[in-house]
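Input:
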Amino acid sequence: DQQVKQNSPSLSVQEGRISILNCDYTNSMFDYFLWYKKYPAEGPTFLISISSIKDKNEDGRFTVFLNKSAKHLSLHIVPSQPGDSAVYFCAASAANNNDMRFGAGTRLTVKP
Amino acid sequence: NAGVMQNPRHLVRRRGQEARLRCSPMKGHSHVYWYRQLPEEGLKFMVYLQKENIIDESGMPKERFSAEFPKEGPSILRIQQVVRGDSAAYFCASSPTHIGSSYEQYFGPGTRLTVT
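Output:
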């Protein structure tokens, strides 16, 4: 039961351009969404989050957009840097659940 | 303020042996979560604990797996009679609160279990 889906396993972007990572969810009870970044041999690191009462949250080069009607969120990174190369996980939680659901991840490669 | 600590980082066990994975949450965090990541897959929730209590173990396999978070000491994920399918990366996360849904989890570096 994959309630959070990241349909693109990988994405390659040129340095300085925009990276757009997408995430879809099926559970309408989700009301808090997060993006995590993971380097090899390390644990995921929290990047940015958004509550369902908002449709946009920005933190420096990172912006998360939420489209509740489409059950879709995206992470924009601009400008992309080689150090952004990592696996990005989308996650979602609901007030009536104890667990956080993660997508399968998207591997971003930023080429110099 | 040290982050979430997990040990060992790598663990090799033969089929049938027991595996014990330890997790020390961040200072001040009383909520602990365990996840498993199989190759090419995302993180799968296993169990959520608070001190001395299992809050939600809906993601734990019914047999051979158990978890605890004692009053003193780290949280332990125990896998008895390991099989090759248990080979995975196991991540622990902690959070300072768990109110509603708006909380961030902070992850440890993971324990990579290999069953030979």
